[in-house]
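Appendix B. One record, verbatim.
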Amino acid sequence: MGIIAFYEGNNATENVVQTIEDSPGQDFRPVRNDEIRSAKIYGVRPGCEIRVYDSSDGSTSDDFCIVNVKRSIPEYIINTFERTYEDEYVRVTFIRNNGLDGKISRIRVN
């Protein structure tokens, strides 16, 4: 089972806001609203999809970001949820409205 740690600062800095396993079917509000700016994943399974939303009900009418894990890696940092990019380990897709970092109010993991 992989681990996802969400951080208060960009580049996985400052305090850990919340840590979860990568089990599918999760849909929740973070323990501290509007604080998450980055994440660090540890051994997360290929095919895992992590979605973070500005909207507390997970609406796609506001900012959101989808992180698709392509390959497992012992440790990987998602520096920001406000950038679209792809490498050998992840594909990150950011849909902008007015900014997402520090405004995350809903998390889904599949």
